[in-house]
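Hi U.,

Before I forget, here's the chain from the pilot set. I'm dumping it here mostly so it's searchable later in email.
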Amino acid sequence: MSNSGPLAGTTVLDFSHRLPGPLAGHLLSCLGAKVIKVEDHIFKDPFIQDNGPFDQSFYHWYKELNQNKELIRLDFSHPEKRVLDQLLEQADAIIMGPPEKKRMILGLDRSNLELKKRPMAIIEPIAGGGRSVLHDLNALALAEILPLYIQNAPLDLRPPFLPWAGIIFGHRLALELLANLIKAKDKNGPIFQEVALLDAVKEAMTPFWPEQLRKNKQTRFLHNGLYPCYQIYKTSDGGHLALACVEEKFWLSFIDCFQLRMTGQDRFDTSGVIRERIAKHILSKTYAECCLLLKDKDICVSTIDPQATKQGE
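Structure:
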């Protein structure tokens, strides 16, 4: 657990579970806060409950998000009051998680926390949009961002490769907690704040596909493959090149490195011709050959080992 950083000396009680709240606690611990994760010893975080053959990656997510926290498990139905009182007395901030009924038992209800009469930031993750529950895909759809992904996805349509809505929400929760911690110190009392998943996703993502672009039906941009200079190309043995040579000097270095007869302006071709030429050329080379060509070259090209994308369970 970190004992240095700008939040050293700050104690956060993390009563949340799954992804957003624990991610917020993780980010705060990376900044030096002492984060104590408090779980029900019977109904533990769903990421580590016995779900049979359910997605086993959740166990690894749980481990990564909570490895720098102090873990305390209590009986939420009959908690040890002395332990809870000690936790609440040292807390500068709380990330909520338990339902209202459990909060009353744990002393996390608003009326009890207001009695503390000292600076404390209490944030509560909620779904937003008039909904009581939302999963990642729901939030992306309601924020009107998912159509952009769908229009550019392959025929074998699957969800985005990471839970972007939850990741954004986790960052927003951490930000809101810090902002309210400042406000609580000014007030010299507790500050309570609901933070909505849907609002967080809208505020973070819609600026990058705003209303005007939607009206224009523009779904192709630099960052999702409009130009050949910003693409992912496959090698003959299943490796890949992540090409991001937007600036002319990097593009010229790239085409010189791979002996491609092209101009600087070709990097912005939208016909597909240049992209296909590069794709065919890279496909004629192995991953190792590409690595050798790029050795000691300071350009915006990254190689991805074939083993890194080999399909597994």
